[in-house]
Amino acid sequence: MKKFMILLFCSAVIFSTKAQLLKNVIPVNTSFNDSLNRIVNAYLNNYRHIQGKIFQEQSDVDIYYSTQSVPGASEALIYRFHSVEDSTASWQAVMYNGDNYKEAAKVYKNTYRLVNKSRLNFGNGKAASFNGTYTGPSEDLRFTSSILYTQEESGPYQYFIANIDLLNNFGNWEVRLSLNKKKDDREKY
What we know:
It contains four helices and ten strands. With 189 residues, it is α+β, with helices and mostly antiparallel strands.
């Protein structure tokens, strides 16, 4: 009976701490982590030193190719909006584009996992990461989004987010990873 109680207790401890245990034990994908860090650090210069040639000009936004990407992305772009209030740019990568929902959902989940597991270096001497809540996809929805926030309380990364979107455009599925500044919607401005 004593052995059974010990086994039951150990099982309860392991299953209740599974998320924290796995986050610390499963190795980080170093190529994704390194690429993400280069892009995150480029945010300090508004992505200017990773900005490539112009992709498209519109009345309210200029879109440029990005010279930096993450593994698995088919395209990476920098969006520069014509705003007097907020001149920060947005970096965006297309992680999947196709007609297979199951594959799109798999890429969406994997992209979230990779971003969530990444260890960031903001250059301020302390390690950082993105944290957020995973929103599971559904084939019935046209749009699913998971947002991960930095835990910075001040400085340039205070409102920096990673946004993973799964979009359905008439049977064409797309997964996007965006890195940009955005205040928490739960806060009052």
